[in-house]
Each structure stands twice: as C-alpha cells, then as structure tokens.
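Ticket #4471: structure output looks truncated?

Reporter: J.K.
Steps to reproduce: submitted the chain below (232 residues) through the standard prediction queue, then opened the result file.
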Amino acid sequence: MASSTNDQSQFLALGSHRIHVDNDDNDITMELHKKKRRRRRCIKCCGCCIATMLVLIVIMLVLGFTLFRVHEPFIRMNSVKIDGISYLMTSSGSSSTTLQPSISNLTVFADVSVKNPNAVSFKFDEATTSLFYDDVVIGETLTPPGTAKARRTLSMNVSMEVMVEKILKIPRLGRDLRYGELLVSTYTRINGKIKILNIVKKNAEIKMNCIMMVDLRNQDVRNFDCKREVSL
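Returned output as attached by the reporter:
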C-alpha cells in the first residue's frame, strides 16, 4: 500500500514538472515572436526613414540646381541719344563759310535694361550713371530703385544734363568740334539683392563701362563697346 502511494506521488510530481516545462516553452516562444515583431517594426521604421531622407536629398539637389542657384543679372546699354547740339555759321575767309557745332546746352538720353535670369525677383537700389569726356566727369545722374521680376527684363530710361562749364575747359574740345566727333564713355553701377525664400540671400553689384563715339553732325552715337562686371 505504501509503495502504491509513493508511485502515485512520483507520477503527480512528474506531471507537474511537465506542465511547468510546457509553460516555460510557451513563454520562450511568445518572447521570440515579440522580438521578431519588434525587429520587423524597427526594419520598417528604418526603411521609411532612409526613404524619406533620400527623397529630401533628391528634392534639395533639384532645388539647388534650379531654384536655389543664383544667376548673374545682366545689364545692357541699348541706345544713347544726345539732344541740344546746335550749329553756328562762321566765316573762314572772304567768301567761304562753315558750320561750327555749339554745345551750350546738352542732354544725354540712354536706354538701359537689366535682365534677371533668376527664379525670384532682383531688387536694386538707386543706380548711378556717370558720363566722362577725356577722363573728366561731365555728367552724372541717379535712377530710382526698382525691381527686375523673375526671368524678366526691366528697361530704364536715363537722362543726364551735361555740365557744359566742365567740358568747355577740356583742351581737346576745340579739335574734336572741328572734326565733328566726341569720344565719351559712361559708367553705370547697380547694387541689389536676391532673396530665395529667406534662405539664400545674395548681394549683387553690377558695373558697366561703355565707350562710344558721338557724331555731332548727325547727333548720333556709334561704335558701342561695353564691358560688364558682376560681383555676387
């Protein structure tokens, strides 16, 4: 009787041990499943982050080569006209007379354009234009501030009064009047700024130096030769 009781006790103990082992196996399996799910979630999250970063990099590269790239504005002198040249009749002998040009009141009109190749506007301050004759400033004017819109060309009309008192003091004036030609030059400077979404800000300075020949007889300007310089 005692031996049967001991056998039953051992059988119950063995059964409880098996149940305990089975529960431990289930816990381990569940833990492995949880780790796999976490790993998959981490892989998905990392994949999404990497894909988002790649898309952002591509967008930044595209913007860098298109919108965020700053191009140099372009300035051009289209035409120049001179008004106020008159002629006086002078006698050089008993019967011969010649027409002598007079420059008592001269005004210079210039057509200047600013081309903006950028995707945003180019805003500039007052532009300064100076007129030189024999390296002497004989005229100067200021044009008001303006804005060249994106990928557009802005035209400006510049008028300038010539300082006759200065040009009359230049020694070579008499000879040039006899030949009917004046070699003059202009210098224009524009300071402006280009802003792209308040992220990219560029200051731009445009300089243009033009040399031209003024035909006093036809009151025409010919032989334009302009050099430009842009600093960003």
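Triage note (M.O.): checked the attachment and the full token line is present. Residues 91-97 have pLDDT under 50 and may be disordered.
Status: closed, working as intended.
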